[in-house]
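Person: Show me a sequence?

Helper:
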Amino acid sequence: MIPVQGVQGQTIAVLGLGRTGLSAARALQAGGADVICWDDSAAGRAAADYEDLEIVDLAKIDWTGIASLIVSPGIPALYPAPHPVISAAMAAGVPVDNDIGLFFQSFATPEWDGMARAPRVVAVTGSNGKSTTSALIHHVLQSTGRSSQLAGNIGRGVLDLDPPVDGGVVVLELSSYQIELARALTPDIAVFTNLSPDHLDRHGGMGGYFAAKRRLFSEGGPDRAIIGVDEVEGQYLANQLSQGPTDDRIIRISNAKLSGPGWNVFAKKGFLAETRKGRQAGSIDLRQIPGLPGAHNHQNACAAYAVCRSLGLAPREIETGFASFQGLPHRSQIVGERGGVAYVNDSKATNVDAAAKALAAFPKIRWICGGLAKEGGLSGLGEGLSNVVKAYVIGREAAGFALDLGDTPHAVCTTMEAAVAMAASEAEKGETVLLAPAAASFDQYDNFEKRGEDFAEQVRRVLG
């Protein structure tokens, strides 16, 4: 646990009692705060009561004497409208923060003065690929014997981490929800993978979404920034942070060749290349690494490579770590194979951009898609549909979702069971049955993990 610093004797309110809320409440208590908690759901309140936390309806309190309000990431503080408790706290002048802000406020301790190498924090954000990138960095560090902990939007809650050891690294995956409210942001290395439309209602549009991501860099002030420049937002961010073409505090990454005197890492036709001052400094053949299939994973590899180089690892050490990476569940995860047909679970492809990248990774695809469609429908798929032999549409609104497929052959299956069974019966050698929904899961499942687990279970049944 990371006890929160600077809260001794203060009364602090916690709103939202899921994983992060409970973690924050425990860490605040460990720091000497008096904590009062609330969750709008009975289940959340029951979880806090089980841990003997004080339950108080924050909608009915006098905010006088409350030092701050700590909010879980799923609760809106601005758009589409602030939660009533947050509005009340702001009206009373009470600072609103979250567990990420508390972590950066509390991570460094006087014990660091006795360490030969201060611990480092790597923070990864972006629309797609941040989980794989974070996990890949963590894996490579562990494979070389470096102490590494993985937390944030993946792994453990940030305040549940162990106090760092000499030279230890903490790798954080951070969503826009987590970044937008944190009052302290001080990563040593920050990564921006890419940007595509997502969570737009929560951020008041694309500009607000980018602004939330940008806070990690503009307010975080990292020593090194690793920026994906395949979208205009990344190009803008890199330009804003850079003092000139040779400023190696900025590492640009891309799925296209980069040139110039700066520090670049790019992947082209499956080969990763690092260049500095116009000269090649390292390279890796990514094509035969099973845990990193497709161009989208090659971009993730570029980001992870850049982080590891910034931490002092040699290219060959990084390549060895890449080779043993098995990938993450629900992200281009091979869950079965028979008769030359592979079954791939990419349930995390919850938006069109992520689905397009998954579709580009395989040549002949039986595509399982559908769910709770996001703004814009399938309009951003572009050339990805050219690899689709046939689509199998699931979800409660499957018929409506299928209308966006145009001339692409498709079947309205509604359920995962029916979609997998039909795709498996029709698939031929050399094809891939791919779950990449391009939609949220909440019409049929609690989350994308449950959807991916159902896909894997249906594949197991079909394959016997």
